[in-house]
Design a protein that fits this description.
alpha/beta, Rossmann fold, 7-stranded parallel beta sheet, 6-stranded parallel beta sheet, 13 strands, binds uridine-5'-diphosphate
Length: about 375
């Protein structure tokens, strides 16, 4: 970008905050820092889905909060677009940076491109090819209207060139979530969450083996019957280790009533955790069962076994190189499938993908300021 005196970041949801934190910091630490403005769309607003990440990751408080929450995806997107125009035209940024695949990502990219402001997409090029996933639509549109596509892995570059996106717009910079993870490692190792959840006694090295469960994709949580089957299958996993289940607000009420009705004494439902405590749990878990995107990557970096309850992933490198295994949650015999996959994964050699090294944000800054 020729002129980058003013950079506008648009975030709105938990994974956006985690991805934006290292880049905002790296831009601030340049010898000639540019002016940065941070807009929070309001998509996630609870303190444990939003505020805590600003504190723990030293993110500056948002300059503007658009307070768009609730409603379905289309209502959210339309409201964000309506409310975002004024702050953009007033700030007059030289570029807009958006992160990941949320509705806030798409709103920021659409607004920027309509207002003829170059858009940079961090975590470009990921494709699940599952067009029923709202995030897949967000990814495809965002990439196709962005000027700078910062990819986390080389498969993402191929996805973009297959869509005829010009090669000179694509930059393989690595995984920015791993920047956040590496820079937080000291705090993660100091977390007391294992003691707080009675998984480790004070002063003891021994950790009770436990699994983690996270679910929030509509395909898994929107239908009560399949959700009950899924929760039943996971809670029956031998040898009935405790399952720590931070419940996403998207399905909280229903999940709590379902877990009461199934025999799930080993399932410990808790509020969503802050980043530091959650990463400490991920690092020390026997296995993680999830439908999250980011958790597939973090477990690959931490070498923790990950079972992704989906039939596709936009992050295939976590399967081919990392610790991730996909399982279709609609398959019969789910408990046995998960058990066997955990056993197989424990003896699999995994490697950390290229450029997942904590230096992604600096690579982006170097490109943006060149
Ligand atoms: N995460 C967290 N607390 C939790 C659950 C997840 O901090 O209780 C973090 C997780 O480590 C990862 C991010 O939230 O960094 C992933 O967010 P989510 O699964 O909501 O979104 P996705 O990655 O699927 O877009």
């Amino acid at each position: 970008m020729a002129n980058n005196n003013k950079i506008l970041h648009i975030v709105g949801a938990r994974p956006n905050f985690i991805k934006a934190a290292p880049l905002i910091k790296a831009l601030k630490n340049q010898p000639n820092p540019c002016e940065q403005l941070l807009i929070h769309t309001g998509q996630h607003f609870d303190s444990n889905m939003s505020g805590i990440f600003f504190n723990e990751l030293n993110l500056p408080m948002p300059d503007i909060n658009l307070e768009v929450s609730g409603g379905n995806g289309l209502q959210q997107l339309s409201e964000m677009l309506i409310r975002i125009e004024k702050p953009i035209t007033e700030f007059k940024p030289d570029s807009i940076i958006v992160y990941g695949d949320t509705n806030s990502t798409l709103a920021g990219a659409l607004a920027g491109s309509k207002l003829s402001i170059p858009v940079a997409h961090v975590e470009a090029g990921l494709r699940s090819r599952d067009y029923t996933m709202p995030e897949e639509i967000n990814r495809i549109i965002t990439d196709n209207i962005s000027s700078y596509l910062f990819t986390p892995s080389e498969d993402a570059n191929s996805n973009l060139t297959d869509e005829n996106i010009k090669k000179d717009h694509i930059y393989f910079v690595g995984n920015i979530m791993i920047d956040t993870l590496i820079s937080s490692m000291k705090k993660i190792d100091q977390s007391l969450i294992l003691q707080n959840l009675n998984l480790q006694s004070q002063g003891s090295e021994k950790i009770i083996p436990y699994n983690i469960l996270t679910l929030h994709r509509p395909s898994n949580v929107d239908d009560d019957e399949s959700l009950a089957t899924l929760l039943g299958a996971v809670s029956n996993l031998p040898p009935l280790n405790p399952i720590i289940f931070p419940v996403h607000p998207r399905a909280e009420g229903r999940i709590r009533s379902i877990t009461k009705n199934i025999n799930s004494n080993n399932m410990i439902c808790i509020q969503p955790l802050g980043y530091i405590d959650f990463l400490c749990l991920l690092k020390n878990a026997n296995a993680v069962i999830t439908d999250s995107g980011g958790i597939q990557e973090e477990t690959t970096y931490l070498k923790t076994t990950c079972i992704t309850l989906r039939s596709t992933t936009e992050r295939p490198i976590t399967v081919s190189k990392g610790t991730n295994t996909l399982i279709n949650p609609n398959e019969p015999g789910l408990t046995e499938l998960i058990r066997d996959a955990i056993d197989a994964a424990h003896s699999k050699d995994s490697v950390i993908p290229d450029l997942w090294d904590g230096k992604t944000s600096q690579r982006i800054v170097d490109i943006l300021l060149k």
